[in-house]
């Protein structure tokens, strides 16, 4: 269980995160999504006690992360796969982690096998690893204490298609056994395939959150075109219908055709096209929600 309540972070008066609230329940994978600079990594660092919040609070398994005794036995964290000792071998890194969290050394071999790092690779120094190999080693570190919660920031970076499929299966299996997963990633199609819930952040604030079925039910939205695009945009904004230009003079609207048509009619805007968009699921939802919010 992860609970985030009105988390905010300010740096010299500038707000990186503002009033972020969400919950990750056991047995689920929560996709934490947003453009670069949206506040995802800052939020995850606050959850893990690495960055003190300006306001609000976050708890993992019912208490702040810093107050969890031997947290590696309860929470697996991977925030930066590059933050590993380059001079040690992969096996040495895991052996030290096992000793630190207090698990038997046999877990080292088990985790190396679980994440697909063969014996030859485990004997190599981490400095010679590819990014994908570092991600696998980082996941092994996160899992070695047999935790109930996983907090992962961009764990699929550097993985090949086979590795991404493997990771999806690993995270889905972890959640199906009752674990809680908070997953940040730019690979939207992979997140859509594995996640039960989404939390979308833009400009440091929550833009949307909810179950996959709830958010993607109308994710394709509608495409609207008018003789006066500027007037159409104003009409949609006045009706509080999220929209973004599609690059051809039309607008992709997050909502029903009826709602978009009524908004245009009330504003006296002449429509030349109104139809269901050819949706791309989570990608379409993400672009609609975060358009214009990148800082």
CATH architecture of the largest domain: 3-Layer(aba) Sandwich
Give the C-alpha Rg. 22 Å
What structural class is derived from the secondary structure elements?
Answer: alpha/beta
Q: Biggest sheet: strands, sense, closure?
A: 6 strands, mixed
- Element-by-element helix/strand order: EEEHEEHHHHEHEHEEHEHEEHEH
CATH homologous superfamily annotation of the largest domain: P-loop containing nucleotide triphosphate hydrolases
- Bin the helical content: 25-40%
Mean pLDDT: 88
Low-confidence stretches: none
Put simply, the count of helices is 11
Number of strands: 13
> CATH topology of the largest domain, which one?
Rossmann fold
Look at the structure and give the CATH class of the largest domain: Alpha Beta
Cα distance spanning the termini: 30 Å
Strand sequence of the main sheet, in spatial order? 5-6-7-3-8-9
Number of domains: 2
Oligomer category: single chain
Write down the overall geometry: elongated
Instruction: Determine the strand fraction and express it as a percent band.
Output: 25-35%
Protein name: Vitamin B12 import ATP-binding protein BtuD
Pfam family, one: ABC_tran
GO molecular function: ATP binding; ATP hydrolysis activity
Family: Belongs to the ABC transporter superfamily.
């Amino acid at each position: 269980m992860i609970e985030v309540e009105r988390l905010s972070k300010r740096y010299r008066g500038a707000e990186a995160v503002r009033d972020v609230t969400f919950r990750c329940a056991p047995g689920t994978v929560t996709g934490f999504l947003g453009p670069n600079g949206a506040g995802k990594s800052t939020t995850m660092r606050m959850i893990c006690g690495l960055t003190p919040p300006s306001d609000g609070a976050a708890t993992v398994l019912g208490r702040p992360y810093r107050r969890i005794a031997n947290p590696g036995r309860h929470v697996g964290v991977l925030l930066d796969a590059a933050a590993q000792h380059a001079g040690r071998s992969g096996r040495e890194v895991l052996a030290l982690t096992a000793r630190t969290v207090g698990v038997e050394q046999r877990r080292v071999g088990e985790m190396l096998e679980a994440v697909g790092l063969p014996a030859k690779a485990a004997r190599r120094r981490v400095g010679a690893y590819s990014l994908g190999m570092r991600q696998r080693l980082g996941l092994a570190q996160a899992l070695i204490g047999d935790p109930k919660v996983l907090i992962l920031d961009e764990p699929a970076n550097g993985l090949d298609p086979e590795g991404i499929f493997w990771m999806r299966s690993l995270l889905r299996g972890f959640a199906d056994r009752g674990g809680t997963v908070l997953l940040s990633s730019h690979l939207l199609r992979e997140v859509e395939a594995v996640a039960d819930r989404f939390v979308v952040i833009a400009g440091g604030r929550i833009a949307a959150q909810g179950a996959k079925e709830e958010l993607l039910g109308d994710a394709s939205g509608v495409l609207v075109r008018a003789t006066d695009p500027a007037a159409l945009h104003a009409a949609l904004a006045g009706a509080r219908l999220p929209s973004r230009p599609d690059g051809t003079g039309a607008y992709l609207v997050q909502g029903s055709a009826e709602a978009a048509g009524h908004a245009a009619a009330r504003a006296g805007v002449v429509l030349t096209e109104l139809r269901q968009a050819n949706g791309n699921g989570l990608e379409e939802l993400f672009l609609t929600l975060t358009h214009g919010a990148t800082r």
